[in-house]
Amino acid sequence: MLGGMQDFKLRVMHMLDHAANEHGDREIVTYWADGSETRTNWAGISRDARRLAKALTDMGLKKGDRVATLGMNHSRHLVSWYGAIGMGGVIHTINPRLFEDQLVYIANHAEDQVLLYDAAFQPIIDKLKDQWTSIKHYICYDPPEGSDAQGFEDLLDRYDDDFAWVDGDEREPCMLCYTSGTTGNPKGVLYEHRSTTIHAMAEIQPAIFDLSTTSVALPVVPMFHAAAWGLPFAGALAGLKFVYAAVNDPAVLTMLMNREKVTHSAGVPTVWLAMFQHMDASGEAPEYLKVVTIGGSAAPRAMIERIMKMGARVNHAWGMTETSPIGTMGSPSPDWGDLSFDEQVDVVVKQGRVPFGVELRVVDDEGVLQPRDGESSGRLQIRGPWVIKRYFKAEEDALTKDGWFDTGDVAVIHPDGVMQITDRAKDVIKSGGEWISSVDLENAAVGMEGVAEAAAIGMPHPKWDERPLLLIVKNEGAEVSKGDVITHLTDHVAKWWLPDEVLFVDDLPHTATGKLLKTELRERYKDFSFSGG
Ligand code: ADP
Q1: CA 263, 74, 29 angle in degrees (round to 5)?
Q2: Residue 323 alpha carbon, nearest atom of ligand 1
Q3: Residue 95: CB within 6 Å of ligand 1?
Q4: Tens digit of pLDDT for each residue in 159-200?
Q5: pTM for the full predicted model
Q6: 377 φ, ψ to 5°?
Q7: For the residues of 419-434, what is the DSSP string, one character each?
């Protein structure tokens, strides 16, 4: 027997329809690369998305075809997501910071038909055009005066908005995102209308992003990083106001945050480091922030403390491209009001709980389920309606025999369900059969006055197999010695975790999504030996 309710498909375009119909005049503000600004609203985004959908259809694009973007955060990029999906296509956001061979690989693997791009990335287009085998149409969001590129606005001007969203099954694809691929070729994750809708519904909850129509959100996380953490969809569902900056300048971000009274922001830790530097230098600070989400890498304690002292709640997000990307959120616990400031920070330093929809477990290397005791660490596995089953064009599912996705992260789960990442499986430092968490070492080091960034890697050791080498970038003008670092760490980690060597470096390599690039560090220091220094 079936129930008696309606067949209302969980299709992405319902989210935009909701925003346009119920919150149509809620604004979308963009600060462009050239310093100009524009304002539209959800009704305008919906109209432009229909015009773009019409244009794409006219170009001969069919259901399921991939439409790629190389763009920063702005309203035209948002229109592109909904326009491409609305015409039945799949939006494919490409990260312009990837290496050239990855950019070539990804667009060809995705068989992108159209590429929409920022003029700032024209050099990439000019260089790679001949190697991209499937792209037939190039459309520039902001062509400079006199350029012969097809302009986005000129294209839309040729179409009216008389277009009905293409319908279909809710399990059809709507978006393709590639992992940043720290090893080997990037892998594509093909999100569905259904998975995207459920993920967005989960995201707006108070315990997750805490979004509603009263929110004013400035997502610093780029639209090309893991679907901008789902915010373009969740924002429509919530009917919130978006403030986009097409440049990543902390001075611009602070100005926008204060002028537009931004309540919600989200970005990787390096974004907040840059904001802090600006705040220190200028004396300015964002004044209206209520919820700041940090994710993509572990949020260091000192960062959480500073933002909480600014009066905002910190959300500590863990997830990955394969999980749409939200997996867990470190956010206030039931006893929050009774906790001291330090105890509250203890809560947020952990990666937190899952929203309803996804489930977590920790297993050892043999696949044996580990207890939720906050101590038994092992491989973190996840399942749920917005978690990957199979990579794009792969021959086999990416799951364990019993249907879980292995994240490659090492974690513990506490008795209250709070998950805590201890490391990535490939970054754990294996010393004398025991594991040292590189993340914990790095976080402890970054908590020290004068330390801007730190990376811990395991280096071969004749007796212990591996021992930690700690690389530190100092704040400008700071005086920090190896002895100071060791003294500081002694208060924060077990004695046998202390690094055998501390080196001061000018900078550390990062992936295209701002994470420490440990593979490159290991390569850089491959000839390092502890005895020789
Ligand atoms: P990639 O997998 O290519 O690095 P993702 O952006 O999907 O690209 O990264 C997902 C990974 O980032 C996670 O598996 C985890 O190792 C790390 N990560 C994300 N958020 C956090 C966090 N809050 N704390 C610790 N690690 C995190």
Answers
A1: 50
A2: 7
A3: no
A4: 999 999 999 999 999 999 998 765 668 899 999 999 999 999
A5: 0.90
A6: -95, 155
A7: EEEEEETTT-EEETTE
